[in-house]
Write the structure tokens for this entry.
Amino acid sequence: MMVLVDTSVWSLALRRKQSDLSPREQALKSALQELVVDGRAQIVGPVRQELLSGIRAEGTFRRVRDALRAFDEPHLRVQDYEEAARMSNICRARGIAGSGMDFLICAVAHLRNWEVFTTDRDFVRYNKVLPLRLY
């Protein structure tokens, strides 16, 4: 099964020094590496943009950008955006707020029957009311 990797996981793997990672974060980085080797790690354009935004050093920007260029992106369709809006509405009706980016990730993964790999605890809340599969 394919796994849509969220910004939080890519960031600790590509933007943080290994020596700065906690044991838990090192395990997450290893899990991502396994997904990459298996050809199961997926990224979408908005996650790529979010990950590259805010990198001050041009060399670091190029290194992260070049690493991410190895990954093709699924074509985002009208249905992805419509489903993201529907999921947002469902959560909002139940008092769960979230970002447009988060719901787009949820929709893309759901419509393709993929899992979501994230450290963002908001996805645990979304998972209570949405048909998500968390990695």
In short: Residues 78-127 form one domain. DSSP finds seven helices and three strands in the chain. The longest helix spans residues 23-38. The CA atoms of residues 28 and 106 lie 20 Å apart.
